[in-house]
Design goal:
The protein is 42% helix and 14% strand. By secondary structure, it is of the alpha/beta class. The protein folds into 2 domains: 142 residues, Aspartate Aminotransferase, domain 1; 236 residues, 3-Layer(aba) Sandwich (Aspartate Aminotransferase, domain 2). The strands form 3 sheets. A 7-stranded mixed sheet has the order 2-8-7-6-5-3-4, sandwiched between helices. The chain has a 3-stranded antiparallel sheet with strand order 9-12-11. Strands 1-10 form a two-stranded parallel sheet. Bound molecules: pyridoxal-5'-phosphate (PLP). Pyridoxal-5'-phosphate binds next to helix 5.
Length: 387
């Protein structure tokens, strides 16, 4: 069978490869610390699980509107207003099958063959695939620690060409856990808007961000109401496998997303949508907030532990559950470091080459989505290993 050039060009996640090797070691009876997992270890909030159990009583769970249950769209709009300091009308909320489908729909809606899309290096690797699936050309812009490994307005302005149609940003970012400062993000959006370009801003980790100056994190929509915002139930609410996310899009795109969703996958999963209505209760939000506090405590443990070992984290993260470590001082490349840490210390990590090209062989992503005692054990194994 002839496989399409598009499919052939997509490389696998190295994170998955390390996950597979870690699983093999575990099956052989080894105890592996899995710092390679890109999802929270907590699972769904109890109220969600109770609702999901109730939904399995034999009732029909038919397709919903392509745009999602109206009550869920309302709840998401309220959540955005109450938590992220911006007003969002429910009619602009589009429920999707995870942030992944939201990103795919956004690229389907906006990218034509030959269009250039600006993305930071390092960044979430799937964005490149989404844009390229529709014939886009991705221009990776190398970032530096001085800019928190994020795009800057100047960088976007300099890179913008005749062919550029838009920019994709994730803030906080995977793999670095760092955000674009709110003013800088507003300036990036201004640059793109002034050139007639679109802005896709992925806020999947916004619920797990520290926020600015004691205030809760703020959505980009507060400064750029026409940005296309992506978010998800996966990380803040711990619902990765339930495949539910959303996009907030300008009025003119709602009908476009509706047609795309109808055709591409009809609707997001119905049971997940009904159960997700519980996510916005005071009890479930308290659970999510407690987890965010737990992540911040773990982050401190990781940063202190790595500093003691002498492994450099050039930018202190302010969100998500990732730390981007410079392993240059060990004399190993990032790939060597990850290979040897797994085989010799039974610690699974993800090499920078999963996320980009620039400096990829110097950096390793550590995900602290494991409990504190496992975390401490992993750090002491890394200490022994690097010694
Ligand atoms: C930055 C970023 N965007 C999107 C996604 C996809 O998430 P979802 O599970 O909602 O599809 C991920 C998953 O790791 C991510 O890190």
């Amino acid at each position: 069978m002839r496989i399409s050039r598009r499919a052939s060009a997509i490389s696998p996640f190295y994170a998955m490869e390390y996950g597979r090797r870690a699983a093999e070691l575990i099956a052989d009876g080894h105890d592996v610390i899995r710092f390679n997992i890109g999802e929270p270890d907590f699972g769904a909030p109890p109220e969600f699980l109770a609702a999901a159990r109730e939904l399995c009583d034999g009732r029909p769970l038919p397709y919903t509107d392509a745009l999602g249950l109206p009550a869920l769209r309302e709840a998401i709009a309220r959540f955005y207003s109450e938590h992220f300091r911006c007003e969002v009308p429910a009619r602009r909320v589009v429920v999707t099958s995870g942030a992944s489908a939201a990103l795919l729909m956004a690229c389907a809606a906006l990218v034509d063959p030959g269009d250039e899309v600006l993305i930071a290096d390092p960044s979430y690797p799937c964005n490149r695939q989404f844009a390229e699936s529709f014939g886009g050309t991705v221009r990776l812009i190398p970032t530096t620690a001085a800019d928190r490994f994020q795009l800057t307005a100047d960088g976007v302005s300099t890179a913008w060409s005749e062919a550029t149609r838009g920019v994709m940003v994730a803030s906080p970012s995977n793999p670095t856990g760092t955000s674009v400062p709110a003013d800088e993000l507003a300036a990036i959006c201004d640059v793109a808007r002034s050139r007639g370009g679109w802005r896709i801003i992925d806020e999947i980790y916004l619920g797990l961000a520290d926020g600015d100056g004691g205030l809760p994190p703020r959505s980009v929509l507060a400064s750029d109401p026409e940005a296309i915002v992506i978010n998800s139930f996966s990380k803040y609410f711990g619902l990765t496998g339930w495949r539910l996310g959303w996009a907030i899009v300008p009025d003119g795109l709602v009908e476009v997303f509706e047609r795309l969703e109808q055709n591409y996958y009809i609707c997001p999963p119905t049971p997940s949508q009904f159960a997700a209505l519980t996510c916005f209760s005071p009890e479930s939000l308290a659970v999510a907030e407690a987890r965010r506090t737990e992540f911040r405590e773990r982050r401190k443990l990781v940063l202190d532990g790595l500093a003691e070992i002498g492994l450099d984290v050039p930018v202190v993260p302010d969100g998500a559950f990732y730390v981007y470590i410079d392993v240059g001082s060990t004399g190993m490349t990032a790939s060597e470091f990850c290979d040897r840490a797994l085989t010799e210390a039974h610690v699974a990590l993800t090499p920078g080459k999963d996320f980009g090209v620039a400096g990829a062989e110097r950096f390793v992503r550590l995900s602290y989505s494991v409990g504190k005692s496992e975390l401490a054990e992993g750090i002491s194994r890394l200490a022994r290993f690097t010694r």
